[in-house]
């Protein structure tokens, strides 16, 4: 049975331009360059290159081209929007002057051998039959970039049976693995950290007392070594601190990641950070600019604008195919203008937000002293700029700023705050800096415990609980006092 009823719903809808703006706001400069190039490839009405003043002036018609005046009101862009395209986009009006010294050119090079190729080249020097060679290649393929064989041998036996139709048992793989573990660099093919260190220490001169003692510690007292229970090791081996220190020095020379020791400079992957903002300090005058060096100029295609004009003039005489062409051209032109507007809005939002951050943290940007950082959360910048907190979050995500004292992520400047005894509001980053300085200056034979660190900070006027000290210490990637102990 059919029924009619009224129902009210509150829905939030975003226009295509708003969605596009949100997506562009989240991405950093490097991805924006790729996004612009992809848009140019997809939209023929969007062109790249500097806009030149055209000698061709299109005549403006006094009469309305549209036969239906209501159609013009419904259109988001009218014909005049496409005809007058001799203006530069506002986001390109900033001066981008660079000297020849600022020009950066990449030097091409040929890629060298990878770590896997290096291991396989050593395999060719061993006398192996066809089956052993295939098994060795499969094991090498399971060795990661650190040089470890993380997969269990019994699982590799099953993999070889299913993928290569080769029947082998675990003992055969152990024999092949022993051959691989004799490869360079020492420690490659290990299945655990203990085995890796033992392989490396065995390649040294075991006649040396310190090396022999280090081998004994790694073989029989590895758990005590990792937990730094040096007193237990001294008691069980009946040795003194000097002998233990010499043995520990030999162990500390070993590489826990042998694969990292093989670094072909021509095959090395280097991660470069391209800053989104550039901040210059000219005698106390902070000047902020967007890094738009690699961003191409954008403009709406004149050809498509003139094509739209021609179709509009002959609207009453257009055939069905011409009307479809008119719809296609208008859609592409609308998309091009929306994209240019979204880029402009993105740049304006970034500048407004970054200027607010700079004004809020002005003392830090003038000096570079982390203790000058004020407590700042997303809502503080949102209140200053009048933007939503989610917009500020998108701006701070994956964005970097270049200053006179380094390149920093925008998230670096956001931190919580707490009050001192005098009631002054300080940033947690300032507390972490003080905590780091205390730990750097501690006596490594008797490292500071979390309770002692809490007492030191209390003496400086910071009332912080021991569990909070532990949280800050973990955020600084600093282990507990027992693990920092040295002889």
What does this structure look like?
The chain is of the alpha+beta class and 487 residues long. It folds into 4 domains: 193 residues, no CATH class; 69 residues; 63 residues, no CATH class; 72 residues, Homeodomain-like (Arc Repressor Mutant, subunit A). The chain has 21 helices and 8 strands. A 4-stranded mixed β-sheet has the order 3-2-5-6, covered by helices on one side. A two-stranded antiparallel sheet has the order 1-4. It has a two-stranded antiparallel ribbon with strand order 7-8.
Compile the SSE list and pairings.
Blueprint: H1 16-26, H2 29-42, E1 46-48, H3 69-74, H4 79-83, H5 115-123, H6 130-141, H7 153-163, H8 170-180, H9 193-202, H10 209-220, H11 222-226, H12 230-237, H13 241-252, E2 277-282, E3 285-290, E4 298-300, H14 302-313, H15 320-360, H16 362-367, H17 378-385, H18 389-396, E5 400-403, E6 406-409, E7 417-419, E8 425-427, H19 428-440, H20 450-459, H21 466-475
Parallel strand pairs: 2-5
Antiparallel strand pairs: 1-4, 2-3, 5-6, 7-8
Helix pairs in contact: 1-15, 5-6, 6-8, 9-10, 10-13, 14-15, 15-17, 17-18, 20-21
């Amino acid at each position: 049975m059919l029924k009619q009823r009224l129902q009210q719903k509150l829905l939030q809808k975003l226009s295509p331009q708003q969605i596009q703006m949100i997506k562009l706001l989240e991405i950093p400069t490097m991805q924006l360059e790729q996004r612009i190039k992809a848009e140019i490839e997809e939209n023929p009405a969007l062109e790249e290159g500097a806009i030149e003043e055209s000698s061709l002036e299109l005549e403006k018609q006094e009469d309305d081209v549209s036969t239906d005046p209501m159609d013009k009101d419904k259109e988001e862009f009218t014909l005049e929007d496409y005809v007058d395209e001799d203006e530069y986009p506002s986001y390109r009006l900033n001066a981008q002057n660079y000297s020849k010294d600022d020009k950066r050119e990449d030097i091409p090079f040929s890629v060298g051998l990878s770590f896997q190729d290096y291991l396989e080249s050593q395999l060719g020097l061993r006398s192996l039959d066809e089956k052993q060679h295939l098994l060795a290649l499969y094991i090498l393929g399971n060795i990661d970039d650190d040089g470890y064989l993380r997969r269990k041998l019994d699982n590799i036996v099953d993999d070889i049976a299913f993928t290569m139709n080769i029947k082998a048992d675990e003992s055969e793989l152990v024999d092949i693995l022993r051959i691989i573990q004799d490869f360079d660099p020492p420690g490659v093919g290990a299945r655990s950290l203990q085995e890796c260190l033992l392989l490396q220490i065995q390649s040294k001169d075991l006649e040396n007392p310190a090396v022999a003692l280090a081998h004994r510690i790694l073989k029989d007292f590895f758990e005590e070594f990792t937990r730094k229970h040096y007193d237990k090791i001294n008691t069980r081996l009946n040795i003194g601190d000097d002998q233990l220190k010499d043995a520990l020095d030999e162990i500390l020379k070993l590489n826990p990641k042998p694969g990292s020791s093989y670094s072909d400079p021509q095959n090395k992957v280097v991660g470069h950070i391209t800053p989104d903002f550039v901040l210059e300090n000219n005698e106390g005058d902070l000047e902020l600019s967007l890094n738009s060096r690699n961003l191409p100029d954008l403009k709406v295609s004149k050809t498509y604008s003139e094509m739209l004009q021609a179709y509009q003039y002959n609207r009453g005489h257009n055939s069905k195919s011409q009307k479809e062409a008119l719809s296609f051209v208008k859609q592409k032109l609308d998309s091009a203008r929306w994209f240019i507007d979204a880029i402009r809005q993105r740049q304006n939002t970034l500048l407004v937000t970054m200027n607010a951050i700079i004004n809020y943290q002005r003392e830090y940007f003038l000096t570079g002293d982390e203790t000058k950082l004020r407590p700042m959360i997303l809502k503080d910048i949102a209140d200053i700029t009048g933007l939503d907190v989610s917009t500020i979050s998108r701006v701070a995500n994956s964005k970097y700023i270049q200053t006179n004292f380094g390149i920093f992520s925008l998230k670096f400047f956001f931190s919580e705050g707490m009050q001192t005894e005098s009631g002054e509001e300080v940033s947690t980053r300032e507390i972490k800096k003080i905590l780091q300085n205390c730990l750097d200056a501690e006596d490594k034979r008797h490292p500071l415990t979390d309770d002692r660190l809490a007492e030191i900070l209390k003496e400086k006027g910071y009332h912080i609980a021991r569990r909070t000290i532990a949280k800050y210490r973990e955020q600084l990637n600093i282990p507990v006092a027992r693990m920092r102990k040295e002889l």
